[in-house]
Automatic annotation (TrEMBL), chains A, B:
Transcription regulator PadR N-terminal domain segment(s): 7-79
Protein name as annotated: PadR family transcriptional regulator
Superkingdom to which the source organism belongs: Bacteria
Amino acid sequence: MSLRYALLALVRVGPQSGYELQKQFAVSVGHVWHAPDSQIYPELRRMEGEGLLAGEEQTRGERGTRRLYHITPAGEQAFLDWMASPPDYQRVRDPAHLRAAYLEAATPAQGRAFLRAHIAQWEGELEQWRGELVRIDAADNPMLVRRLAVTADEDRERTIAYKRFAYEGLVERALGEIQWARSGLDLIDRLEGAEEAP
Amino acid sequence: MSLRYALLALVRVGPQSGYELQKQFAVSVGHVWHAPDSQIYPELRRMEGEGLLAGEEQTRGERGTRRLYHITPAGEQAFLDWMASPPDYQRVRDPAHLRAAYLEAATPAQGRAFLRAHIAQWEGELEQWRGELVRIDAADNPMLVRRLAVTADEDRERTIAYKRFAYEGLVERALGEIQWARSGLDLIDRLEGAEEAP
DNA sequence: TTGGTCATGTAAGTCGTTACATGATTGG
DNA sequence: CCAATCATGTAACGACTTACATGACCAA
């Protein structure tokens, strides 16, 4: 149930429409917490109903409208309460390692395909997260720039440092997954004989 | 939807009751894929309905019964098909890194509490997974022993090696998470000043 | 005038969580 | 005889997925 806190983190930097928030999910928080629009719009309505956000109907052109959401004091407090609350961890549920534990039931080719897919998956994530680190350093992330604009001077270093910290952790994790899968490819070579040239 | 494949992996070594499978989840596959009994019993019934398992009603004492599940050829094939299928990855949804990215909104004490909880969480997992490695090496895991008993000699090495491979990956991941959180504690010290003695 | 993007949802279904519910058997 | 453990579920709810649905605005 972190979706609402991800949304609060975004709305905290300034009023936004559902559409803007949904787009931000694709490029900033979304690198850490994915959510589709079909989940975001109803959640914003719920949060408005609970008083965490205030919605403001705006006109757009002749007949178009959009709804700008502002954070309320209750919303700000909910975010701070969440930051102070003990984290909740999901029980482990890891399809990749589950499958890896039974690779003797696969052919060597299937095992290699699986591990290569794992590498490709994490290389994709790695690229996202490294890109985000670059954008943080270049002050090139629009949300971070907006955030820093409303942040007191003495808090800018901290804001940037914690963001770097989060993404560095993700980069390390991705590198670990890739290294693990590579060692799995080596293991298959040792156990089943090296792969024939295609 | 890996639950049924985790169950198939277990039933593949020999007939088991729902209760036994549920217990195995606590000590073997459960280290990789958690599932509560309230999910396991209905899933077994569904799998029986789909012909992946064959259930056999047994009497226990005077009036007690239990249901033994055998894997069917269709079940075996479903497991092998799953091993050969491209893995599916969930979109990223990581509450810990989400929170880490906004730690400037927390007090130093809250930030430290969060990171310490993260360390405690992963030290718990680490202990589980290292324990599992020890049991693999000592041939002390009942499911693995049963598995090896029905495994051809030439396949034993592979069976053990892949299991080690899976758990070694999890151990590395846990170590990475712990290292990350420790570096976060150092970061808080640098940014906010070292913690006062309690 | 047309295609992209702005804008906001609904509906059906799956997976998982938490809590509740019940009763039999067996070993000490 | 009593506690542990064997044994099997149901019910309600919440989070997320996938697919569908609609329409306005704007720039080329």
